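Hi V.,

You were right to ask for the full record rather than a summary. Here it is.
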Amino acid sequence: MNFLDYFNKDAVHSGLMNFVRQSVLDSLPDAVEKISYNMPAWAGADGKVLFYAMATEKHLGLYPHPPYIMEHAEFLRTEKLKFSKGAIQVPFDYSQEKLSELIHEIITYNVTHNITR
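Predicted structure:
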């Protein structure tokens, strides 16, 4: 599967994934789009991944790297988002405005702290 397959009209939750993609590019216009760990990923100019996202049947998975989650765990709890060491589960009814802000915050955090994979 190539990167654009995750965003075409036949993809699972393609509208949401296109919203995520646009939110990432609004936050980091020169992001390098690629597939990593079999999911869409966005990297900096050096090719190192800053952020991953994947729509599943039950939720949107965001994979921002563990340091972001550890530092923002209380915020994620306040937002009633399920999370683990490396993933955030965003329900489909989460507002797009909040989702865009969350993606921007994750990208900014990872760029500022040089957190990549």
